[in-house]
Design goal:
Alpha-Beta Plaits; 20 strands; 4-stranded antiparallel sheet; 8-stranded parallel β-barrel; TIM Barrel; elongated; about 30% helix
Length: about 425
């Protein structure tokens, strides 16, 4: 049997799949159901203290770019956009602690870590809730520095808006919160960062120095979509949004934060499939949170994710997650590496495969391809971008490494050689 266990800060999880904070874990029964589904950890629905966050905005979900299949009621497309007007928990944090108390033993018996998520305002609120969650039986805390967004227009005192994303945008204020919490609770502290923040490597370093054991990357950020038939913005205006399309952004910062800090990273936004979990783990994540994909597919999807990871490990002969975790981080190239280690390419057509469809010609922006019956690539003009090989419907184009960079520079400047830097076209001796 493959070992799917992972270490996340000081926590050891039986597997890397984590229920992200949200409707999945908003009640005692929902938390038990998540535990039974097989998650390695469950993050509870975020609680917060301002009155308006317990009432508004009302839960409202919209799926865009979501293609259905009438022959398969359970079909979920590979790509979609999820926008929502979701509220924090209707239960005040100290009341939600009683829910945690009801389920913490159940989770521990089944080796599922329980991570309490909340957001607060002043230091006293942050501290009181942390102590209550620790006493209730949480194994860790997720300090939500993203949700909720500032309540513009709902409060007169600006300090009332110092909640949620405020602490991502003001990391020193967030660090102050973490230092206080680190001094009063023994639980691991994971900071949920907003993707609407700044330079996340620096943010993670600030939070790590203040006592954070890890970061969650990311919660949703605000997006806008427009109904072109009515001219109205979908769900009334800028709203939290996510989808598989954002995975590359989350992966980029997961890799960078992992490379620059020693704290744990839980990947989140954009993860949809088991393959995504592998990508996040290879990019350095210690675990991967899922919410929207589970909401769309049901809790049975957790087993699909776990079986997919185990099957992948069997095929690749990995015995444990540690065998491939961080594999991509070790191979990230610096700018100097790109110069020293990456050779220029050029394309060549296999005329035995080529069907003369002209697809390659239409995507070549270096004027390197002409087509009669078959495509021909002019090596002296080919920039080596490889786009033609990727769109070719019959895989008739192979890319090869050039012998030297000078040929590559000359190809790049072949349209206007007279305007190229002098060393691109060196003059022969005697000229």
């Amino acid at each position: 049997m493959k070992d799917l266990s992972v270490t996340v800060g000081s926590l050891t999880l039986k597997n890397p799949i984590v229920a992200a904070g949200g409707p999945l874990a908003g009640t005692a029964q929902h938390i038990r159901d998540c535990v039974d589904a097989g998650f390695g950890a469950v993050v509870t629905k975020t609680t917060s203290t301002p009155w308006f966050l317990k009432r508004y905005p009302r839960p409202y979900y919209r799926l865009l770019d979501y293609k259905k299949d009438s022959s398969d009621p359970f079909y979920v497309p590979d790509t979609y956009t999820w926008m929502h007007r979701e509220h924090n928990s209707v239960y005040p944090p100290l009341n939600f602690a009683r829910i945690i108390e009801q389920v913490s033993g159940y989770a521990k018996e089944r080796h599922c870590a329980l991570i309490g998520s909340y957001s607060a305002r002043g230091i006293d609120e942050w501290s009181e809730i942390a102590l209550a969650y620790e006493k209730a039986g949480c194994d860790a805390l997720e300090i939500n520095f993203c949700c909720p967004f500032p309540p513009e227009g709902l409060v007169k005192n600006p300090e009332e808006a110092h909640v949620g994303i405020y602490f991502t945008r003001n990391p020193e204020a967030g660090a102050e919160v973490l230092r206080r919490l680190r001094s009063i609770v023994k639980l691991p502290l994971f900071v949920k960062i907003s993707p609407d923040g700044g330079e996340f490597g620096q943010l993670a370093q600030v939070f790590a120095a203040a006592g954070a054991d890890g970061v969650t990357m990311f919660a949703n950020n605000k997006v806008v979509r427009v109904d072109i038939e009515t001219g109205k913005p979908v769900v009334y205006g800028p709203a939290p949004g996510t989808g598989p399309w954002i995975k590359a952004f989350s992966l980029r910062w997961t890799a960078e934060v992992t490379a620059r800090t020693n704290i744990a990273v839980m990947g989140n936004r954009g993860a949809t499939t088991w393959q995504d979990a592998i990508e996040f783990l290879m990019a350095g994540a210690s675990a991967v949170q899922y919410c929207t994909p589970i909401m769309l597919r049901g809790l049975g999807y957790v087993r699909v994710l776990l079986d997919g990871i185990a099957g992948y490990m069997e095929r690749r002969r990995f015995d444990s997650i540690a065998d491939f975790q961080g594999m991509a981080v070790k191979q990230l190239y610096s700018n100097q590496d790109l110069i020293d280690k990456v050779k220029a390419l050029y394309g060549e057509v296999d005329h035995g495969k080529c069907i003369g469809c002209r697809r390659c010609r239409d995507v070549c922006w270096y004027d390197a391809i002409h087509v009669a019956r078959k495509a021909v690539i002019k090596k002296k003009n080919c920039a080596g971008c490889s786009l033609c090989s990727q769109v070719c419907p019959v895989n008739a184009i192979q890319m090869h490494e050039r012998d030297n960079d000078l040929e590559h520079f000359q190809a790049l400047a072949s349209a206007h050689p007279e305007l190229a830097p002098e060393d691109f076209f060196p003059k022969e001796a005697g000229q």
